[in-house]
Write a structure and sequence with these properties.
Shape: globular
Structural class: mainly alpha
Number of domains: 1
Order of helices and strands: HHHHHHHHHHH
Strand content: under 5%
Helix content: over 70%
Distance between the termini: 29 Å
Radius of gyration: 19 Å
Number of helices: 11
Length: 236
């Protein structure tokens, strides 16, 4: 476990902060949009955290994850630091899981801050006599799905980054994949019969979604571990 934390600390210093304050411009803008602008537009109804609003904040988190995960291995390869990392005594699993974990936590942190900002804005603007907050069940689902979706994006990104020579190539592939995946999900929702939504509650459907994403997360991380081979990575 300490080796994983070592990799996470290294990534936190080297990758996430290599651009200085400029590295925070994009996530700050996204947090400002989700946590300030959209709550002001949606007014007090934003605090309901409906499934549509949940999709919005989760999409923003996913966008943050795929925008930085491309740097995990492809970025090291471009900066010629991958050989140095692989020459250490850190276990393969620690390197891989450390890189995945820091990206997931970064994206999840953006999600949490956005939700807290939104709650603060709505309370200041529309709270009036008493404070308001998100429904406990919807907030819990959002936070759990945030971790699962972040892991999905990080797992897919790391898997691509392991074999890609440039960060731009990974980002382009992830962007195209996101569009295709989004279209497939929309098509699937339209194909589902009406009785499905009448039979199951929102909480039950969200539990099903969480279970499916969790299985995909395990599959992606497992494949990434199998494909993580130091000799082949150095040779590329």
């Amino acid at each position: 476990m300490s080796d994983i934390f070592t990799v996470m600390w290294k990534e936190w210093k080297d990758s996430l902060f290599q651009g200085g304050w400029r590295a925070w411009i994009r996530p700050s803008l996204l947090m400002g949009i989700v946590g300030i602008i959209w709550p002001l537009v949606g007014k007090a109804a934003w605090m309901d955290l409906s499934p549509l609003q949940m999709v919005v904040v989760l999409w923003v988190e996913f966008f943050v994850v795929i925008s930085i995960v491309a740097d995990s291995f492809a970025g090291e390869r471009e900066r010629h630091t991958l050989e140095t990392l692989l020459a250490t005594r850190l276990p393969d699993r620690a390197i891989l899981l450390g890189k995945v974990a820091i990206v997931v936590l970064y994206g999840w942190g953006v999600l949490v801050v956005s939700l807290l900002l939104g709650a603060g804005v709505c309370n200041l603007a529309y709270g009036q006599e008493h404070s308001i907050f998100y429904p406990a069940d919807m907030l819990s689902f959002t936070l759990v799905l945030g971790l699962l979706i972040g892991t999905f994006g990080a797992g897919a990104g790391v898997l691509l980054s392991l074999r890609s020579s440039t960060v731009r190539m990974v980002q382009a592939t992830l962007s195209i994949g996101t569009v295709v995946l989004g279209g497939a999900i929309i098509a699937l929702l339209q194909l589902l019969p009406k009785w499905f939504f009448q039979t199951f509650t929102t909480d039950q459907i969200l539990l099903m979604v969480a279970g499916i994403i969790a299985l995909l997360d395990i599959l992606l991380v497992a494949i990434a571990m199998l494909r993580f081979q130091r000799t082949k990575l150095i040779a590329r």
